[in-house]
Q: What sequence folds into this?
């Protein structure tokens, strides 16, 4: 089976247009990149870059001008349900200096989805380098010049708001941003970012009368902390930013009465969370539970912690089940849609756009729905146990039969 998939991948990629050139980039922890930690370093191009603006609908996308050297059927006056275009054309806009390794990661996830569907396609990557207005305008001009009208853009909230002001003549899907983080209204923009407030609300059902918050000072950590304060301010007994988890934290953890029987939120990436959980086990902190959002839904948690560190660890997860064959293709290409929520959100968005919005294929692969420009996920609470993550019930946080096993 895998030999057949490999042969299919090679043939499909060789027959498609050149996609992108991989470059070594710095790996960024999932869910932690933001515009404050990766400043724009490239000087914007000189002069004013102008782009003609217009509002485009799904039907107008299907009537786009032919790309040079291509001949596609005329679709005017044809009901959308009967439209059969052979080549979905997707532009991937990446500010590589801001999102780092996600530039290649998202490209591989989209490529895997298109290969899984066994149809001809055009996928081209456009590197804007930064999220400055001039760089985004220049990239948009190149995208429009090549005839692309559908863009997947993994941007930060700052970049997405900036791009939404200027990209009014294309359909744009932003897998990294939730619509709640948008100040600019653009009806052609769709969003796939996780709703961290919904995850906090789900986790708070497992927190009793004492809540402790540990964060690393990042933008995401502060956002999650704000959500907790909004919902349960009266139950918060202790809050602490820990920029250096590698240091000895005995002064913070030993004989700290505020931690006794508390639900402790770890608002930090998986490596830092694992180190802190290990220190809490070492100093026998009598906490009740550890709670965390999507940032700690990772198999690294099993590598970096021991069993006793994970016994009372609960995590909110929004990643659903993808077809096994699609997961296999992602694995072969070096992508991950089991635990990487940005890759998963990218796949969900492309699936919705090509199926429900443009009618280029029939039958959704993913169950997530898009309503009012935002993808909505089913948040489940899981517990890391031997062999994988298990869903838990609300009564006593014991495992249910359903599992999310490790690959």
A:
């Amino acid at each position: 089976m895998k030999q057949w998939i490999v042969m299919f991948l090679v043939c499909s990629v060789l027959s498609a247009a050149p996609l992108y050139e991989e470059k070594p980039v710095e790996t960024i922890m999932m869910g932690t990149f933001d515009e404050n930690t990766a400043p724009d370093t490239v000087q914007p191009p000189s002069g004013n870059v102008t782009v003609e603006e217009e509002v485009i609908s799904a039907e107008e996308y299907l009537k786009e001008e032919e790309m040079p050297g291509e001949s596609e059927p005329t679709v005017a006056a044809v009901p959308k349900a009967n439209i059969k275009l052979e080549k979905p054309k997707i532009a991937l806009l990446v500010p590589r200096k801001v999102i780092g390794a996600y530039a290649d990661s998202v490209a591989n996830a989209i490529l895997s989805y298109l290969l899984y569907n066994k149809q001809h396609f055009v996928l081209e990557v456009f590197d804007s380098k930064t999220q400055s207005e001039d760089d985004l305008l220049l990239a948009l001009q190149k995208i429009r010049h090549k005839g692309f009208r559908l863009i997947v853009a993994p941007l930060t909230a700052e970049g997405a708001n900036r791009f939404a002001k200027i990209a009014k003549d294309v359909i744009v899907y932003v897998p990294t941003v939730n619509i709640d983080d948008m100040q600019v209204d653009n009806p052609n923009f769709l969003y796939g970012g996780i709703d961290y407030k919904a995850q906090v609300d789900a986790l708070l059902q497992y927190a009793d009368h004492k809540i402790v918050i540990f964060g690393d000072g990042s933008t995401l950590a502060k956002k999650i902390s704000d959500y907790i304060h909004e919902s349960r301010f009266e139950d918060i007994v202790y809050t602490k930013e820990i920029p250096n988890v590698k240091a000895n934290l005995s002064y913070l953890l030993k004989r700290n009465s505020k931690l006794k029987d508390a639900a402790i939120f770890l608002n930090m990436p998986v490596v830092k969370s694992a180190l802190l959980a290990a220190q809490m086990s070492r100093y026998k902190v009598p906490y009740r539970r550890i709670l965390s959002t999507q940032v700690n839904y990772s198999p690294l948690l099993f590598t970096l912690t021991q069993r006793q560190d994970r016994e009372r660890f609960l995590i909110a997860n929004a990643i659903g089940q993808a077809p096994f064959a699609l997961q296999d293709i992602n694995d072969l290409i070096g992508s991950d849609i089991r635990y990487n929520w940005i890759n998963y959100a990218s796949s969900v968005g492309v699936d919705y756009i090509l199926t429900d919005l443009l009618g280029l294929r029939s039958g959704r692969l993913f169950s997530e729905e898009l309503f009012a420009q935002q993808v909505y996920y089913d948040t489940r609470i899981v517990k890391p146990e031997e062999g994988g993550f298990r869903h838990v019930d609300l009564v006593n946080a014991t495992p249910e039969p359903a599992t999310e096993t490790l690959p």
In short: Residues 9-58, 64-84, 398-407 have pLDDT under 50 and may be disordered.
